């Protein structure tokens, strides 16, 4: 008799050309990932050639019960690290039956910005540093922490090694390899300042693909923590008190910034970000005011600042960028639960299209 694990790991290509496509979308909260699978007659590599599908939007907070059908439009395809073989993960966005994007479809508006000729010409690159916290399932307390108590103060945990410093490395490494398998442009991982907190980086990715890749990386992490029996938290301040929060620092450059004289372009872009600070903060994640306090490597939420190598600023410019006179900068304001389509397109719109 086969074991359950044997059946889960069946290689479908041994007996059929059919594949399983897991359609993934974002639910009504803006952070709840949803997915369901369907059988296709064979592999498909071009998203528009995949069939559209539908779901019950009244069950995800995205449609009324009397008119609940929401249509999924496939937008990006990745290899499936769970089913493997020719099976795929499909990032979708959501529309009404009449073809209008539903209010929670943030990808549609972002795609409009990224398809603007002025933005296309600047080839915007993004590198997103996604921080997250792993929690014990039944008590919602960080893994590695004594239940009802606290570990030693921060200091030894950042990029730490050892049983008393690094908690959840098996989950983190499984996620790293699964993302590489899937085709996500994941560029690294590290342990974070608060114990039980980790970070992965996606990028450099161009335009809308940064959002697609971050969302599928989040989905893969949700699935792995599901298997491990651990709760994944994107809360920007999961533990109150003298503990670091969780952000999604967004590194950004344009073609003009990467060329000679780019440092002056960077400074002009930062000045534009300063002028729209309130608008950006409003779009950079729920609960971010609990994180952006001016402590724990953050700038105060009400004050815009920038500096070279300054991790206490709203925007940080690297030493290498200053030295070479070109490169990129880091917007340190986005929270860990930010919407990547919103943040990436807003940065591009403000720095490239907006005329103060």
TrEMBL record:
SMART domains, alphabetized: Gln-synt_C
Enzyme Commission identifier(s): 6.3.1.2
Catalytic activity: L-glutamate + NH4(+) + ATP = L-glutamine + ADP + phosphate + H(+)
Top-level class of the enzyme under EC nomenclature: ligase
Domain GS beta-grasp: 19-99
Localization per Swiss-Prot or TrEMBL: Cytoplasm
Keywords: ATP-binding, Cytoplasm, Ligase, Nucleotide-binding
Xref: InterPro entries: Gln_synt_N, Gln_synt_N_sf, Gln_synth/guanido_kin_cat_dom, Gln_synth_cat_dom, Gln_synth_gly_rich_site, Gln_synth_N_conserv_site, Glutamine_Synthetase
Molecular function GO terms recorded: ATP binding; glutamine synthetase activity
Keyword match Glycoprotein: no
GS catalytic domain span: 106-356
PROSITE patterns the record matches: GLNA_1, GLNA_ATP, GS_BETA_GRASP, GS_CATALYTIC
A Gene Ontology biological process term: glutamine biosynthetic process
Record Gene3D superfamilies: Glutamine synthetase, N-terminal domain (3.10.20.70), Glutamine synthetase/guanido kinase, catalytic domain (3.30.590.10)
Annotated region described as Disordered, given as residue ranges: 37-64
Gene Ontology CC, one term: cytoplasm
Family according to the record: Belongs to the glutamine synthetase family.
Name of the protein this chain belongs to: Glutamine synthetase
Gene designation per UniProt: GS1
